[in-house]
Fold:
Amino acid sequence: DGNANFFYGASLFQLGDYVGAEGPLTVAEGRSVAEAAQILAGMSLDRYDVDGAEEHLDKWAAILKKGKKSIPSEHDAMTSRLIRLRNMLDRVEHIEIIDSLSVDSADFFSYYRLSREAGRILPPDAVGRLVSSGFDDELSTAYMPENNTEILWSSADSTGTYRLYGADILDDGTVDHAAPLDDKLGEGGDAKFPFLMPDGVTLYYANNGENSLGGYDIFMTRRTDGDDGKDYFQGQNVGMPYNSPYDDYMLAIDEASGIGWWATDRNRVPGKVTIYVFAPSQMRVNADPDDPNLAAL
Structure:
């Protein structure tokens, strides 16, 4: 029975048993249950199986058309994810992982060991202590450069959407002109976890907007001096292996020590994130797109 198999497979999927879910969901898909094809397409994307995802998306659309139902916006969104995934798999950066740490997600940032020249990653309550009212709660980590002249952070606005904010720090330690950064950095989603390189121009951050693979992805932008403050270029997804279909964030590169860091929950350990420590390269070298181990990379 298609519906029985769907509910069984969907329940296993919600419990995290993806291997067990695949069989009954495949049966349900073969019995023209559109929702089964939808879940199977998402599971394929999470496994970097672009061909499988495309097949299930086609079946999903065919089932809906056969039932004379319209194609939902979720299908279009997943198709866009598929295109982004396929493009990123063609240029996976080959990097040297030095170490990895599995740590509690609540205070993962405390495990970043940055030199003084790289600045400081501050806990969420640091902004509440430094900045006047309006930023007392719903905060993410903050960043302050070595010279202590500014602070960058993320806070939820009146709609609950997280936006990036910045403020100058005066000589007496008070904060002046706290203001949101460019709205386009969030791409319609939440923007968090800023990290500014020592050049004062290159900004890394995370957002879960329309150009994300799924969850938070790490983006990079550059800023210039405009007439009314800092102007920011459109953020660019930094691609793989930094990003995945899960949450990836807080990329920090310490040029003084030659070490980079980023956090991810792609290993799916409840309450934990994995911090990867890597050796940044001056020149980007991409892995062979035909490498059979590309998904693992």
Residues 107 and 123 are 8 Å apart (CA to CA). The first helix runs from residue 2 to 14. The helical segments are 2-14, 18-30, 34-46, 50-66, 73-89, 125-130. The chain has six helices and 14 strands.
